[in-house]
Amino acid sequence: MQHVPYFDAASAAPLHPVARQALLAALDEGWADPSRLYREGRRARLLLDAAREAAADAVGCRPDELVFTPSGTRAVHAGVAGALAGRRRVGRHVVVSAVEHSSVLHAVEDADVTEVGTDRTGLVDAGAFGAALREDTALACLQSANHEVGTVQPVDEAAELCRAAGVPLLVDAAQSLGWGAVAGGWSLLTASAHKWGGPSGVGLLAVRKGTRFAAQGPTDERESGRAPGFEDLPAIVAAAASLRAVRAEATAEAARLSALVDRIRTAVPELVPDVEVVGHPELRLPNVVTFSCLYVDGEALLHELDREGFSVSSGSSCTSSTLTPSHVLKAMGVLSEGNVRVSLPAGTEAGDVDRFLEVLPGVVRTVRARLGAPASGPAAGAGRTAGAQDEGEGEPDLVVDSLGKRCPIPVIELAKVIGDVPVGGVVSVLSDDEAARLDIPAWCDMREQEYLGAHAAPRGTAYWVRRVS
Amino acid sequence: MQHVPYFDAASAAPLHPVARQALLAALDEGWADPSRLYREGRRARLLLDAAREAAADAVGCRPDELVFTPSGTRAVHAGVAGALAGRRRVGRHVVVSAVEHSSVLHAVEDADVTEVGTDRTGLVDAGAFGAALREDTALACLQSANHEVGTVQPVDEAAELCRAAGVPLLVDAAQSLGWGAVAGGWSLLTASAHKWGGPSGVGLLAVRKGTRFAAQGPTDERESGRAPGFEDLPAIVAAAASLRAVRAEATAEAARLSALVDRIRTAVPELVPDVEVVGHPELRLPNVVTFSCLYVDGEALLHELDREGFSVSSGSSCTSSTLTPSHVLKAMGVLSEGNVRVSLPAGTEAGDVDRFLEVLPGVVRTVRARLGAPASGPAAGAGRTAGAQDEGEGEPDLVVDSLGKRCPIPVIELAKVIGDVPVGGVVSVLSDDEAARLDIPAWCDMREQEYLGAHAAPRGTAYWVRRVS
User: Maximum CA pair distance of chain A?
Assistant: First the structure.
């Protein structure tokens, strides 16, 4: 098989060889019901117990605190529901970061939710997170690291503040557990095996002793009543074995991949004009780097990269079924158009990264040319200066009608006309595309123009921009 | 590897060779996220679509009516919850058979439930099932075949009655789907792949178009919003492939296994005294046979059979974590002590059944001897006849104190003393064992003694038995 680089490990990693071996062995030894008393059942029980011990050791909890669920999403759903029900009498207020995985945000959709924002790097401020805790806060949720931009969150500090307030903290460790245990006094932790090279079909839910927890849904005897249904034992065995294996390699591999990510972080803005690298430069996962390209359609970019053999994902609106930009990029307030997340699986070769950096500039150029994007650099046009004008009042000097046009067209049209108004003049972009709300301010930021704000228009929204340079 | 017979296919079947092959192939081809646009994602999507078409074809529904869940139990939970929520305005009454799988009974535990009983063969009367439907019935649930005794239920007839009443019928087809599609106008159907030789980790939920359904739990985009979490694609591919494979062999294999089951049904009562074969003699699954042995401790019997190399399961109270007999045997009103379910996996050899029949009599004899069980046949003792006595009144002639003793001891003690009272005399057995409620009447039935009833005693329950012969 031809070697093809795959750069979407944060979504799903290919099966680790150890996982494959363990799965095959457990298909023969672990297909029976572990609750049965006969030979095959006892053998299955031994395998399940051993897997639980190995996983608990990697998580840093006791085996009887950990259950296996059918996915990371199901672990989050069960963990949140059980914790909320266990503290029903305290209240129904929940604190989450605004950049949690959608499974967490959906799990709390019926609660009274406070979302704590982030800075432009996606970093949650632990103090702000702690300050959001209230008397009636039943649960707080903070990811160990962000799945879209790789920013590592101050979970340890947040856990201290939660403990002081008597609020349990649930940590979604899906992106980081393969790299190391989550430090600190969390109360609940969730993870997903196919993110670390384990098989799909296995999530983890750890609930520390002393945490109030009332499992929801119909009664079931399996997995301490916290994860109903017949255990997928071969997959569980493979998940535990591969977690142990990736952990053994984690320090060395993290250093190696982190250097590759650094190269991408440095090289992309040099090689491609009008790019914003997003996510924290230091507090980050070793294998994730995300950037956004002005005047680029994310879906077209993904297709072009795919044609070149690179599999990446994107938080751009055009790649989502709802045509809205990723809630993570929105919360960070960064550009969402032409967004690319590169997440390197363990074992990624430096040569693959080289080739990606070779290919990327041409791919972006092609997509931009197809869209008729303006030339890079500061806005072109005459250096006229407009007369004095009251901010946000009166009429704009120019109106661009981008109604019905999708990201990145409204931004491209704005960029094309900004030079047509004098310095100090105002352009109004009419758009009904959800991404414009994020991308027009981000464009102003990148091009040092002044964003004046958004107003509801008879159709869509009017975004006002003052030409400054 | 030495060939060891495994007779608990109704619990979990060993992996079918086709499932194993498909799983291995899909581990390489189907690990990526099927919702991604790149090469690996598109390949995963194709596999998922093909598996859904194959499974829908075997179920007899449209592909867009079928979703994959992480287990049969989860399919039942999601199906029941969605159907109940979809018909919330109709009411919260549910009709189920008393012998449904525990996942169904647990799924309806918060509803207003009518349980429809069975006859002594475990058969539900369709008319009685239909008569239980009410104006406010939101859902009816009837298994295609019983998991403990193999009795096949009149689903087709029940579906007609449900349709006439405008009530959706959910059919738990876990035990039968490998043998054939469920006929008739059901509205929802659930199944579990590891029952037909597929891998664990895969259930099916089919919801026919036009059935009101509102998925419960947090929002999730996958599987039409009915089964949250990352799809376990390799397992799904293997499940669909093996369903197709077992169906191709089903007619021939059903005939072959059915003949083996007939041999067991005939031979066991001939070879072992005081045995009751339970379940319907004709309306039954091809591969399941269940019998109960008087004066036998189910757990000891399982252990002895395991030592001889046979893996079977039991509905006896001593093999359950709750120390209560199986709710199925209870609903049927049959003997629960010394209960053995033999469920043959596809490919079971006739020689294995021969050896089982060779071994069984000695094993039962050993267990009985260890418990000091009475000799077989009619009650020993003098042929005295007691004077006239009013039924259920006055004092018993003899009281046996079996308090604190577990099944089958109370029945053994009753059998030992029945000959000590004259014909017409009454023995009272004091017991606090839940199984006695089922097994003392069943013993009376088998030994042609008269069961007079149970009364609360200062401790435990007094079971009164009149010696008749």
Answer: 90
Classify residue A292 as exposed, middle or buried by CB count within 10 Å of its CB (0-12, 13-18, 19+).
Answer: buried
By Cβ distance, the residue of A77, A192, A311 closest to B217 is A77
Options 3.60.70.12, 3.90.1150.10, 1.20.120.10, 3.40.190.150; CATH for A257-371 is 3.90.1150.10
Alpha carbons A249 and A109: distance in angstroms, whole number? 38
A1, A23, A226, A230: best to mutate for the B interface, most B CBs within 10 A: A230
Residue A432 touches chain B, beta carbons under 8 Å: no
Domain boundaries, chain A: 17-246, 257-371, 398-466
Could you identify the residue written with the tokens 């929801």? A216
**Residue A320 sits at the chain B interface (C-beta within 8 Å):** no
The pLDDT tens digits of the residues spanning B61-92 come to: 999 999 999 999 999 999 999 999 999 999 99
B185: number of Cβ within 10 Å: 14
Phi, psi angles (nearest 5°) of residue B317:
-60, -35
ipTM of this complex? 0.92
Q: Does B3 touch chain A (CB under 8 A)?
A: no
CB contact under 8 A, A15 and B27: yes
Q: Which of B37, B200, B299 sits opposite A233 (nearest CB)?
A: B200
| 3-class SS of residue B180 | coil
Q: Do B8 and A299 touch (CB under 8 A)?
A: no
Average pLDDT estimate for B254-276: 97
For the stretch B125-183, pLDDT in tens is 999 999 999 999 999 999 999 999 999 999 999 999 999 999 999 999 999 999 999 99
